[in-house]
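Journal club prep — side note

Before the paper discussion, L.F. wants everyone to see what a predicted structure for a comparable chain looks like in token form. Sequence:
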Amino acid sequence: MLDDLLDDADAVGESYGVKIVERLARGRQAGPTIVEEAMRRGSEIIVLGATRKSERMRKAIFGSTVDYVLKHAPCRVMVVSASAPPA
């Protein structure tokens, strides 16, 4: 399943003429791991998929991982989002 997601990401980048280097990185916390990997590889952009939180839980629009990456990334960040399913 994860390989399918990485293949999909590669196909989307290719459709825009952008070279994608997808990586699977493991760490205790996703946000710092993503930022460290982007720094290590000299990334130009980080693309994250995220669902928006419901209106009732709107302290933040996205979760802590997206928030961390947006605040600490050494490059541009694109967040691709869909609305959360109705509760």
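L.F.'s comment for the group: The mean pLDDT is 83. Keep this in mind when we get to the figures.
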